[in-house]
Structures are given as structure tokens and as C-alpha cells.
Design goal:
Helix content is 36%, strand content 29%. By secondary structure, it is of the alpha+beta class. The chain folds into two domains: 125 residues, Nucleotidyltransferase, domain 5 (2-Layer Sandwich), CATH 3.30.420; 59 residues, Nucleotidyltransferase, domain 5 (2-Layer Sandwich). The strands form three sheets. Strands 3-2-1-4-5 form a five-stranded mixed β-sheet. Helix 1 packs parallel to helix 2. The chain starts with a strand and ends with a strand. 22% of the residues are buried.
Length: 209
């Protein structure tokens, strides 16, 4: 089975094509192309601007991904897209595009949970069978594991997710968003000479920053 995936839950638009061989063998990534909406320093990415970016780039990236993977429409078995969670306007833009391709190509449409997609991608790459996951993304900092036929959250940040914290810190100091706030903070930190201990709290499995 060959699946094409469309991801646009935030400021990054990604198109990936994966080949799923016979059961028991690892999936093969045929292409993985991204384009990022970059807002000016000191500003976040607004939903309407991010959605406009995704609409402008989606068709180009789909064509690039298919060319890189060496596949044609006839080779694709299904179209996957991020159903949520994420930013409403960008998610909607990508969902509309996915539905359009599904109708044009006559392919099955599969909605994917954003968080589960991250976890399953990690499982596929590492070969982990039943991991306890520390899930750290822009909007989530959670301890997740599979129990009773579903992924369950066993702990999460009570105040702010780590990724969101870094984004706000970068906006406050007007650090560049290109290629990403967290990356630029890390590069600046490498030049620092003073290490400060920052307070944090930990209640059961719920960290607070």
C-alpha cells in the first residue's frame, strides 16, 4: 500500500509518501517535503496567514513529493490528512485540499489524529512495540501510553507546553522565527556563559514549567 499524507496543523506544511510493504516489514519513506510559514521576529503565526500559506503551497508540494517518490496517481492507495488537534484555519485548508484530491483521484480518505501520528511515526522508526511516550510538541507536553485499546494521557503540563513556552520566549525577545524559534534559541544558548536554574514543579506525572 502507498499512502500520501498531508500535514498542516500549524505553520509547517508537509507532504509525505510512504510505502507499506507486507505485514511485519518496516514502512519505506518515499518522499518527505515541507515548507514553513515564517512570521516576522516578535510575532507569532496568525491562523489566517498560515492558512493562506498552506493554500498557496499545497499543490506545488504534492507535485514535488510525487516526483521525488517516483509515483503516479494510479500508484496511490489512500490520502491521509491531519484531522486535529491543531490550528483551525490551517487544518481546514489542508482538509479541503485532501478531500478535493480524494474526489479527483477516486482514493480513500483517512483522517489522522495529530498526536497519534507523531507517536506511530516514532514507533515505526524505532521499532518500539509498547512504549511509554514523552510527547513534546508545540502545543503539548504529555506522558502517553497505550492502554485498553487506545492511547491515554497519564500526565501533562499543567501550565504551558514546552514548545509554546519557547515560542513565547522567542517572541518576547524578538528572536527570528526562521527556521524555527526553538532552534534559534538553542544556537544563542550555545554562546552563553552563565547557567541559570529555572524553577519547575512536578506533581505525580504532571510537569509544570
Amino acid at each position: 500500500m502507498i499512502a500520501i499524507g498531508l500535514e498542516g496543523s500549524a505553520n509547517k506544511l508537509g507532504i509525505g509518501i510512504i510505502s507499506h510493504p507486507v505485514k511485519g516489514k518496516p514502512a519505506k519513506i518515499l518522499s518527505n517535503i515541507r515548507h514553513t510559514f515564517v512570521s516576522p521576529p516578535g510575532e507569532g503565526f496568525l491562523p489566517k496567514d498560515t492558512a493562506k500559506h498552506h493554500r498557496s503551497w499545497l499543490v506545488k508540494l504534492v507535485k514535488q513529493a510525487m516526483a521525488q517518490a517516483g509515483v503516479k496517481v494510479a500508484d496511490i492507495d489512500c490520502i491521509c490528512y491531519t484531522k486535529g488537534p491543531g490550528m483551525g484555519a490551517p487544518l481546514q485548508s489542508v482538509a479541503v485540499a485532501a478531500r478535493m484530491l480524494s474526489l479527483l483521484w477516486g482514493k480513500e480518505l483517512v483522517g489522522v489524529n495529530h498526536c497519534v501520528g507523531h507517536i506511530e511515526m516514532g514507533r515505526e522508526i524505532t521499532g518500539a512495540q509498547n512504549p511509554v511516550v514523552l510527547y513534546v510538541s508545540g502545543g503539548n507536553t504529555q506522558v502517553i501510553a497505550y492502554a485498553e485499546q487506545r492511547y491515554r494521557i497519564f500526565g501533562e503540563a499543567l501550565d504551558i507546553a514546552v514548545g509554546n513556552c519557547l515560542d513565547r520566549f522567542a517572541r518576547t525577545l524578538e528572536i527570528s522565527n526562521d527556521p524555527a524559534p526553538g532552534y534559534n534559541i538553542e544556537q544563542l544558548a550555545k554562546k552563553g556563559k552563565v547557567l541559570l536554574d529555572l524553577p519547575y514543579a512536578w506533581t505525580v506525572l504532571s510537569p509544570g514549567f
